[in-house]
Amino acid sequence: MAGGVAVLGAVVLVGWAFDVPVLKSVVPGLGTMKPNTALCFVLSGVALGLQAGGHTSVAGRRIAQLCGALVLLIGVATLAEFLFHVDLGLDALLVPVAAPLGSPYPERMSETAALSLACAGGALLVLDSRHARAAAQILAFVVALLSLTALVGYAYGQRALYASDPFTAVALHTALGFAALAIGILCARPDRGMVAVFVGDTAGGAMARRLVPVALALPLALGWLELAGERAGVYPAAFGTGWFAVSTVVLLVAAILLYADSVSRLDAKRRYAEQELKRSNEELERFAYVASHDLQEPLRMVASYVQLLAKRYKGKLDRDADEFIDFAVDGAVRMKALIEDLLAVSRVGTRGAPLIPTDANAVLEHAIASLRLAIDEAGASVTSDRLPVVAADAGQLEHVFLNLISNALKFRGVAAPHVQLSAEARDGQWVFRVQDNGIGIEPQYFDRIFLLFQRLHAKTQYPGTGLGLAIAKKVVERHGGRIWVESEPGRGSSFFFSLPVITGG
Ligand code: ADP
Fold it and tell me: Which residue, among 174, 194, 175, 185, has the nearest Cα to 119 in the 3D structure?
């Protein structure tokens, strides 16, 4: 677009320099593109080309803004000439134009062209200014509207739409140039404004892509037909206007209803995808529950018998046998922990108790009491500010506290572990914080650690199943909140989780 606009301006300037009528007005006899307009097209094309894509150097942006400012200045100065009936000597600056009979200002562009240039120049000047992004879009829309009006005037043969007095008219290629410029400015930042909606992979984008072309083409085509019928004397003017109104309404309503029908169909399909997903999720959870529940029994048997073997025969067989028995005990213990955690994961959604007002302080006390031995062994201190009453399943909330505190003890640094709990009201939610002074976590793992079986360490370094945080996440999400971590390696971690504030009675 940018190249096209600049080339158009340059070609017309050549037309003026060497007096080639076809370059000045396309169809000799029709309005000409004035030299100043052509110059502004070159400047606008350069400004747009330099800023297209958004990766402009500082120097490039400055040049683009300078071009935009010049275009704005020429547009505004020309408008002032019209408004205040003055001659600023701007019009014949480039090429003096031989006056058509009776024209008081033969070199001057039309008011419409001047207004379009002022808007386009302004838009190019503020394209990336943080506070005027909406203004750039609005100005480009004005340019589009003005050029559409002139183009419709040419298509319909209605001079009043592209000329305001007998001498000044928007030339056909000027109108086309402005249309290209407006589209170019709007598309220069496709991630913003209406263009972002239009090209977006959203229901709104799909609707805009279907309905905007219809809304543009339909009234224009019907209007043209109405005029043609009227000029051919098929019906009187008043009838034609009525016919235009009715046919536009009927066809636009039909287009909207057709679109609405396809959207409803898609919606029904989506709801069916969603139900299937819910069903298969539930099935998977049931499967995980049944599998881990049923595996528990034989595993318990294996574990207790290998432990019995270890107790009775350790030191009585050879060294290899002792080692093998140790491996078997270790494996059985780990598998037991894994299956218990898997069972806990599958129980969050299916076996949860109702969410009722629960004093988080009492739940925390319970959790600390269960962890007393581990806390004392680690020489740790666990302290807490006053916590709120929240709508929760106390058993599940305790599980979250247990998991976060035992992780803080497990992933401790050189200093004695200190765990501090607090909660604050933020954006209509209670945000709990469990802060430790442990080994910390690298930022690239902040999301991964909440997934099933994701661990950052070998089991020999720190024991665990990699399910604790996944269970905590499921519990928090079941309560309508979310969980996240902030941490710096070597400086400790803070786990946050939000729970909705209890509202109403
Ligand atoms: P597990 O503790 O069984 O390994 P989790 O799901 O509880 O599994 O944690 C996943 C991983 O997140 C851990 O293996 C560890 O690498 C990291 N992590 C969790 N809590 C902390 C913490 N307080 N400090 C440092 N790393 C942690």
Answer: 185
d(CA 143, CA 452): 55
Q: Is 450 in the pocket of ligand 1 (CB under 6 A)?
A: no
The single residue listed with the structure tokens 């370094």 is 461
Instruction: Report CA 139 to chain centroid distance, whole Å.
Output: 24
On whether the CB atoms of residues 170 and 31 are closer than 8 A, the answer is yes
SS3 call for 158: coil
DSSP 291-311: HHHHHHHHHHHHHHHHHHHHH
How much of the chain exceeds pLDDT 90, in percent? 52
- Residue pLDDT, tens place only, 377-433: 999 999 999 999 999 999 999 999 999 999 999 999 999 999 999 999 998 899 999
* Tokens standing for residue 110: 């039309």
* Residue of 419, 455, 471, 495 to mutate, ligand 1, most atoms within 8 A of C-beta: 455
Which residues share a beta bridge with 484? 496
> What is the rounded distance in angstroms from the CA atom of residue 94 to the CA atom of residue 168?
18
Q: Nearest-CA neighbor of 499 among 360, 403, 354, 361? A: 360
Q: Cβ–Cβ contacts within 10 Å for residue 233, how many?
A: 7
The residue whose CB lies within 8 Å of the most ligand 1 atoms, and thus the one to mutate among 336, 340, 411, is 411
452 DSSP assignment: T
432 lines ligand 1 (CB under 6 A): no
Say how many CA atoms lie within 13 Å of 35 toward its Cβ: 19
Q: How confident is the model at residue 99 (pLDDT cuts 50, 70, 90)?
A: low
Closest CA to 148 of 75, 81, 212: 212
Residue nearest to atom 13 of ligand 1 (CA): 455
CA-to-CA separations, 505 to 355, 357, 502, in angstroms, rounded? 15, 11, 9
Q: pLDDT value at position 505? A: 46
Q: Are 419 and 409 in contact (CB under 8 A)?
A: yes
Q: Name residue, tokens 């269970």.
A: 471
> What single-letter DSSP state applies at residue 445?
G
**CA atoms lying within 13 Å on the CB side of residue 469:** 24
Asked if the model's pLDDT at residue 458 lies above 50, the reply is: yes
Ligand 1 atom nearest the C-alpha of 470 is 6
Contact between residue 32 and residue 24 where contact means Cβ atoms under 8 Å apart: yes
What backbone phi and psi angles, to 5 degrees, belong to 189? -130, 75
Residue pair 39/10 in contact (Cβ under 8 Å)? The answer is no
Q: Distance between CA atoms of 199 and 403, rounded to whole angstroms?
A: 45
Question: Rounded CA gap, 483 and 481, in Å?
Answer: 7
Do residues 401 and 364 make contact, with C-beta atoms less than 8 angstroms apart?
yes
The residue ranking higher by pLDDT, 481 or 504, is 481
